[in-house]
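Field guide to reading this record: the first block holds the primary sequence, the second block holds the structure written as discrete tokens, and the final block holds curator observations. Each block starts with its own label. This record concerns Sulfur relay protein TusD/DsrE, catalogued under organism Acinetobacter gerneri DSM 14967 = CIP 107464 = MTCC 9824.

BLOCK 1 — SEQUENCE
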Amino acid sequence: MSTLLLITSAPTSIHAWHALGLAEALKAQHQDFRVFFYQDGVSTANTLQWVPDDQRNLTTAWQNLSIRLPVCVSAALARGITDQDNAQRHQISASNLAQGFELVGLGELADAVQSATRLVQF
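BLOCK 2 — STRUCTURE
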């Protein structure tokens, strides 16, 4: 069984943390799964987010999973998140996509939905 975790909640939401917890559990059990960051969930990929020292960093936690972290390019750009290529293409002065995350089109989400046996949205 293949699971798609569709993360649409902002990183400040408890739902975003539940998505991470499920991803960690699926990985620990060697289950087949994919993730896709969409809508406000793309903010997880913003390297400029500040997290207090006494709080766990959601971006770092996703990076530590060492899995592919696709992010919707349109949703990211609309929220001020870009990689170097898109920064140059759209005349944006700097990039701020966190390491390990990658900007992709919605075709990738369509493919993930098509191949998944279950979809869980957070």
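BLOCK 3 — OBSERVATIONS
The mean pLDDT is 97.
The helical segments are 14-28, 58-64, 73-78, 84-89, 106-115.
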